[in-house]
Amino acid sequence: MGAVITLQTAYNTENPIYxxxxxxxxxxxxxxxxxxxTIAALILAGKVGSNIASEIGTMRVTEQIDALEIMxxxxxxxxxxxxxxATLIFNPFLTxxxxxxxxxxxxxxxxxxxxxxxxxxxxxxxxxxxxYYITYSLIKTVFFAFIITSVSAFQxxxxxxxxxxxxxxxxxxxxxxxxxxLLFNVILTxxxxx
Amino acid sequence: MIRVIKxxxxxxxxxxxxxxxxxxxxxxxxxxxxxxxSGKTVLLKSIVGLHEIESGEIWYEDILFxxxxxxxxKKIRSEMGMLFQGSALFDSLTxxxxxxxxxxxxxxxxxxxKIERVNFCLNRVDIINANSLFPSELSGGMKKRVAIAxxxxxxPKYLFCDEPNSxxxxxxxxxxxxxxxxxxxxxxxxxxxxxxxxxSVMEIGEKIIFISDGVKCWEGNKxxxxxxxxETLNDFVFANSLAKKLRALSK
Lengths: 194, 251
Known about the structure:
The complex is a heterodimer of chains A (194) and B (251). Chain A has 194 residues and is mainly alpha-helical. Chain A has one domain (2-193). Chain A has helices at residues 2-12, 21-61, 64-70, 75-113, 118-126, 132-157, 163-193. Chain B is of the alpha/beta class. Chain B is globular, with a radius of gyration of 19 Å. The chains are: A mainly alpha (194), B alpha/beta (251). Chains A and B meet through α3 of A and α2 and α3 of B.
């Protein structure tokens, strides 16, 4: 993602008035503000969300959840809480990794394609750095992690029927999570950056 | 002993169970029989509290189960074991972990004691050298037996079996029936079995209720079932041509 941002910024800012280091700055801010949190969340909604919905949904239709209930186990808490905690803890780390790898990819692509020098890029990613952007990105990630897990677990937990319904629940989990992520992206941006 | 009094249950306005009253006795295998879709599973799941009932009472000894809160139900549920139609073994756990699961949840025993109990239960149902296998690696009959082992791991007072023979060949089905009957007598449990298998009825039916369209039509035992006056029950019992011929011969 960082590589594409770098190349596209470079090819769209050919005016010599713009300093070249702005390409690095654009790559850094795009990765921190949007791509590492929102795009990664959308990808995770597809991967993790469908996984959670289908796993819990299958447990529902094969009566494994009933078996938990009959043993006196609070099935919702037992099945969903660990997943919720795991995503809330680990998604921020994934976001940080995505930021680092994205910027690194931008540097590699930019220098290899010859659209920016290594010095310019490194100067750009250091220029006018606002640490709060990282906090903003991590706050968004935590919200998105909660949305992915809760929506997907809900869809899986209340599935009724058989394998067809599990598939539908899985699809709904991804679609609803993605829409909510995009909606909350707007709301959180307005609340945190205004 | 479990007593059900005037139990009513409906889904989306459709009455599934109507005024069911029955007493399930301790130390006996109590059978609920009926055609597919007659309401057997709904009755069983209502008795164990997996379905909320509209009206009626469910008594476990002298405790009104359906009015208990979550904590109260949890206490009774620690005395229940249930065998589900599809076994309902946890896919991600091995056989040993599946049987150990209720022990992990409800006991403070050491790991060695739990494993000892797991092995005892697995031996009791003739599952040997399968502790590390996953449910996907087991046959249908083995899954049922592991599910029974899990159900008896906590020495339950109440055992519920939802169509324990479904999908099994006749010989394995009889073995499972015999195992349920043996365990019921050995641990003096109150066992309720849902079935539409007439072999099971004749093998282990110490007390039988017949349900048709959500209504209890008949109550008796395996010796009385062949001489019933209930037409719907006779249609059910003598459904296949062999049974019809035998009935005609006996007359």
